[in-house]
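Technical appendix A lists one of the benchmark inputs used to test multi-chain prediction within the project. The record comprises two sequence entries:
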Amino acid sequence: MSPRVTRIVGFVAFAAFAVFVAVLPAFINDFKAQQYAYVGIYLIALLGLNILTGYTGQISLGHGAFMAVGGYTTAILMAGNEPSIACSSCDGPIGGGMKDIWTIPIAGLVAGLVGIAFGLPALRLSGLYLALATFAIAVALPPFVKRFEELTGGGSGINLFGLPEHTGSITNLEIFGRSLTFNDWLYYLSWVVALVAFAGAWLALRGRTGRAFRAVRDSETAAVSSGVSLARYKTLAYGISAAYAGVAGGLYAIANTFVNPDTFPIALSIFLLIGVVVGGLGGLTGLVFGAIFIYFLPLWAQGEDLGSLLPNRIIEETQKPGGPAIVYGVILILLMFVIPNGVGGLFRRVGQLLTSRRYSRSAK
Amino acid sequence: MRRHPALVVLAVAAVLALAALPGALAGSSADPGVTATTILIGGTSPLTGPAAAYASVARGAKAYFDSVNATGGAAKRKIEYKIVDDGYNPAQTVQAVRRLVEQDDVFAVFNTLGTEHNLAIRPYLNQNKVPQLFVASGATTWGRDAAEFPWTIGFQPSYQAEGLVYGQYIAKTKKGAKIAVLFQNDSYGKDLLVGLKAGLGRSSSKVIAAEPYEVTAPDVGSQIAKLKASGANVLAIFATPTFAIQAYVFANRLGWRPLVINNGVSGTANIMLIASEGGKNKVVEGTITSSILKDPTDPRWKNDPGMRRYRSILAKYANGANVNDIYHVYGMAAAFETVGLFKRLGANATRARLMVLARSVTSAGNPFLLPGISVKTGKGDNFPIQQGQLQRWTKGRWVPFGGLWTSKRN
C-alpha cells in the first residue's frame, strides 16, 4: 500500500470509529456509558504518555501526578476552597465559580507547564534514573497536596457533586435540544475530547516533530548529528504529554465528581504505563484497548462485568481479601506472554500478514 | 492533503453533536433493590490495599446475613449483601458506590468503611435519596449533620466522644501528664485529637506534641522518635492497626515506656498480641483503650450465647476466617441491627421508610456488643451507639474497668 492509500484507510477507519463512538450509548445501558466515559479519559492520558514513552523513548512512572495537577486545577477552579469538614477554620473563598468544561483547557495548560518545568531537569537524566525521578513526583505529590489544605481540602479532598458549576446532575440535562442523562453527558464530553486529542496526537506525530521524537528515541547521538535539538524535543514531549494527562485529570475530576490525594495514587501512574504497554508502544490505535484494559481489568478481577463469566471457583477467590490483586496479576502476566508487543503490535502483525508487503509507516 | 485532517475532525464533531442519542431513563414507582422475597444491599470494603485487614468487617456482616437467610430471612426477605472492593481509596469508593446504585440497583448502601470514603459518597447518596446505613466510621459529622444529610446514619460512638473519654481519664488519673499524640492525617485522626483536648479541659495534663502520618506512608518510625524526644510520659495512638503496631514496636526499640492510650480502631486483642511481639515488647502492658464489642479472645465470653452464635456462624458461613479477628464481630453487630430494621419494614419497603426506622431504633439486646450497650436513636439523637467500656491490657488480655461510659454531647 502506498502512503496515500494508507492515509485514506486511516481516515476512513477514524471516521468509522467516531461514528461508532457517537452511537454506542444508544445500545448500552446508562451506567455503561459512564464506564466508557472513563475509558475515554484514560485514552487521553495514554495518548499523552505514549507520545513521551512510545515515541520519544522517555519513561515516565509519574504520569498520575500530571493527572492530579489537571484534576486539582479543575476542582479548584470549579469549587474554590469551600470550607470543608476537614478545614472548618479555613477562610475566604479562593477561585471557584468556573463552569466545568471551561476548566479543561486550563487544566491541560497548567499540567503542560508543570510538565515542561519537569522536562528541563529530566534532560540530564536517562534510563533508570529518569524512571526514578518521575516516580519520585508520583510519590511526593499526595503529601504535597495535603500540605495546602486551604486550597485542596487536605485528605478530605474537594467534592464537586451538586455544585452549580457542574453541568451534570441527577436530573436530565438539555444539550442542543436533546435530553441527556448525566452519564451520557459524561460519555460525550470525554469522547469528544478524546477524539480531538487522538487527531491532535496523530497530527503532531506524523510530520517533522514526530520524526524528531522517534529519532531521539532510536538514538540520541544520531538525532543530534542530524540536527535535532535534544533539549527542545524532549521538553516538548514532556509538555505535550503532561498537557494530555492534565486534560485527562480535569475530565476525571468532573466524571468522578470528587478529587482527593488518593484519587491519583502511585498505582495510577503504573496503570497508565501498563495501559501503554498493553496498547502497544509507539502506536495510537491500540491505546483504545489499553484504556479499556486498565479501566475494566480491576473490575473483571473482582468477578464483575465480564469477570462474572469466570468459573465460580475463581469468583469466590476474588471475594477474599487480596483476591482481586492476584487475579489482576495473573491476567497481566498471561497477556504479556500472548501479545508481548501489545494490541498495537498485534494489529501490525495482522496487517503485515494480510498485505504481505512491509507495512511502510509502522516504523517500530 | 494537508487540510484533510482538520476536515475530518470537524466532521466527527458534527456527527457527535447530531447523533447524541440519549439512553432512555427507566421510570418506576417501586424502590429499587427490594421485592417481596429479597433485599439487595451493597457496600464497599478494602479487600485490597493498605487497610485490607478491615475486609473482615464486611465478611462478618455477610456471614451474619447468610445465617439469617438460612433461617428464612428478615420477614421472609432474603438479604443479598454485595461487597465491592475500593482498595481503601475514596475515589474508588465513589465509582464503586455509583456502580452499586446505578448498575446493581441496591436498596441501600450498608456499612461502607472509612471516614474519607463515606464523606466522598455522602452528597451523591443523599441527592439520590439512597440510604447510607450504619456507616463504618466514627466521624462526628454523621450524627451532627443529620439535618443536612438525612439519608446518612452512623453506627459506632463518635471519635470525638472516644477522645473525650481518654482526655477525662488522663485528667483524672494522671495529674500533670505530658501527652504525645500520633494521629492519622485525616478527619478520623483529627476528630480523636479534638476530643482528647476537650476531655483534658483545664486540667494540668497537656498535649505537648502531636505528629501526623499519611495513610500511604510506609511507617511511623520518625514520628515516634520525635514524640519520644518531646519528653512526654503518655503516648496516644490514634492510628489504624498497621501503624499502631509499628508505634509500639518503634517505642520499644527506642526504649520509651510511656503510658499508652490506643484508640478502639486498633485496640483489639489480636493486634495487641502482635504488638507485644510474643511478650518481648513491654510497652503494650497497661495500654488503655475503649471498646463496644465482645472480644472473641476474652475468656469471659467463652460460654456467652452471643459469642457462641458468633463462632458457629463464622465457622459455617465464612470458611477459613480467623475467629479471633474482632472485626468480624463489628460486622455482625451492624448486620444484626440492619436485620432488625428489615424485619420491621413489612409490606411498605421503601428507602424513605428504612431511614425513618433507622432514626427511631431502640435495641438493647445486640448479642455482639458488650452487655449494657444499647443502640438508640430518636428525635434529636442521631448517634446510634454512644457508650463504651474502658479497658486495660493486662498480662495478655483486656481487663475492663470503671463501668460503661456514656457520652452526652458527642
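Chain A touches chain B through 70 residues (CB under 8 Å). Residues 83-92 of chain A have pLDDT under 50 and may be disordered. Comparable benchmark entries are summarised in Table A2.
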